[in-house]
Amino acid sequence: MKKKCLLTILLLSLVNCGLLSKNKNSETSLLNTLDNNQKQALITFKDLLQDKNHRSILEKQQKSILKDLEKHQENSNLQDKLKKTLNSEYDKTQLNKLFDELGNIKTKQFLQKLHIMLKSINNGTLTSFSSSNFKDSNQTLEQKKEQALQYIKGQLYTDYYLYINGIQDANYFFERIMSVLEI
């Protein structure tokens, strides 16, 4: 009996090492295909996912989705997930899983679009700075930049953690974020 337990533990350890190696290889493979702008966007995205300052936005979105589902009496399984506290702990394997599900092409598109958006915000060239999205004409350019940056970060944080909690799938994450990152 003891030998079976030890053998099982040994096998599980080997499987776990294999999975970790696969995730490491997956990340390395992706990194090798990214240009410098995409790598910078990836670093920014990873840093954002570890920043708990946007947790309240996730909680508001969680309540909003739950309220809407309850109102229309839809998807009881999803309602059950939303009634629980959502996981918002950064886990590199979850990020790798998202990128694996998206594939290299969509991942690179996402990172490129994120880089372009962040650059246009930082440069003050975001076209929506002059639109009705920034109605308060008393705002300085720096205030508009900060408002736009916080909005983008909040959306990225929220949609990522909705994805890892099984509230939305990878394709929905991609489509939604790509529309948020439209210039």
UniProtKB/TrEMBL annotation:
Q: According to the UniProt entry, where is the signal peptide?
A: 1-21
Q: Which organism is it from?
A: Borrelia parkeri
What protein does this entry describe?
Answer: Outer surface protein
Task: Print the keywords alphabetically.
Answer: Signal
Q: Organism classification, top ranks? A: Bacteria, Pseudomonadati, Spirochaetota, Spirochaetia, Spirochaetales
Lineage top rank: taxon: Bacteria
